[in-house]
Amino acid sequence: MSSSTEVEQKDDHFEELFQRLQPKKPVAGGLVANYQGVWFYADLLQATLTFQKHFKAIDSDIILASMPKSGTTWLKALTFSIVNRNNHSVDDSPLLFSNPHYLVPFLEIYLYKDGNIPDIDSMPCPRILATHLPYQFLPSSILDCSNCRIIYLCRNPLDVFTSLLQFLLQNGLISSPSMSIDVPFEEFCQGIHPYGPFWDHCLGYWDASLKNPQKVLFLKYEDLKKDVNSSVKKIADFLGYPFSAEEQEAGLVEEIAMLCSFENLKNLDCNKEGEIHGAFRVKHSSFFRKAEVGDWVNVLTPSMANRLEKLFQEKLGESGLTLEIKSK
Ligand code: PAP
């Protein structure tokens, strides 16, 4: 991650602003408040405001966006490997020694945390950066910078909720494994969870990808699971790093997909051990759990699943966005 050059103090105005938003305490994590239609923890909102004020995009920037627990870690590993394939062979990849979240840092969770104004100009280009922020929260310099690219990864909400719940439990961020999931489930359905509501998040990027497909690539976790090699080529083409015929014949697409596979990354020491300090302290291992489509069947009751599926379909309306809910 880049070194920071300045720190912006959390001022009284921010505390006042947060209190005026009348924060609620959801079961999952700390206090969240609704700011311009989106739910934030105080620290993440402060970091978001600093990021919006100070970040200057450049044409070569690559922004990876997602709702938490949509497969961000996977997208980071794949994009990093595709873009840097001339700098590191697969056998020598930094991914073998470093959790993907250090190689592709989150803007509002790590880089602009606690009022930091990072020296991102010193980062090597192309800068690959990540965010969980909704599309409308991205600074105008990203939206207006014509060649900077955004890749959004979406996952079905039943698995996102399931993955989020297990992640919070694994990291001790919710109290007891035997606790009823009714309350967090209800909050998720109401959109009260960090960066929620879920549907507004997906639809913001979905609409942007339809309006400007050169700038925003919309991917689905379930599609990556079905055919990761095609997704690797799609990402490479979109970013302007297409695989040559020689690279394809040499099997480089498959090698990158293997390097970034769940089974490979999960078993590396750098992902089995250690913690990362973002909004919370979280175990590296907690980013690699099951990686299945349809694992929600082990957590949600059939009526919860029906309700969330219906709600999601209702919210998506005529948008044309569909997501696969069960593994086929
Ligand atoms: P984040 O938003 O906190 O960064 P994120 O990486 O988006 O988390 O989501 C983690 C999910 O992606 C986990 O899903 P699960 O809980 O249903 O198992 C995790 O297992 C899955 N995941 C992580 N790495 C990979 C990978 N290489 N391939 C497929 N899925 C992965």
Automatic annotation (TrEMBL):
The Sulfotransferase domain is annotated at 59-320
Q: Which family does it belong to?
A: Belongs to the sulfotransferase 1 family.
What's one Pfam family here? Sulfotransfer_1
Task: Name the InterPro entries on file.
Answer: P-loop_NTPase, Sulfotransferase_dom
Q: What is its EC number?
A: 2.8.2.-
Q: Which UniProt keywords apply?
A: Transferase
Taxonomically, the superkingdom here is Eukaryota
Would I find Transferase among this entry's keywords? yes
Q: Which GO terms describe its molecular function?
A: sulfotransferase activity
Instruction: State the protein's name.
Output: Sulfotransferase
Q: Which organism is it from?
A: Coffea arabica (Arabian coffee)
Keyword set includes Methyltransferase: no
Which enzyme class, named as a word? transferase
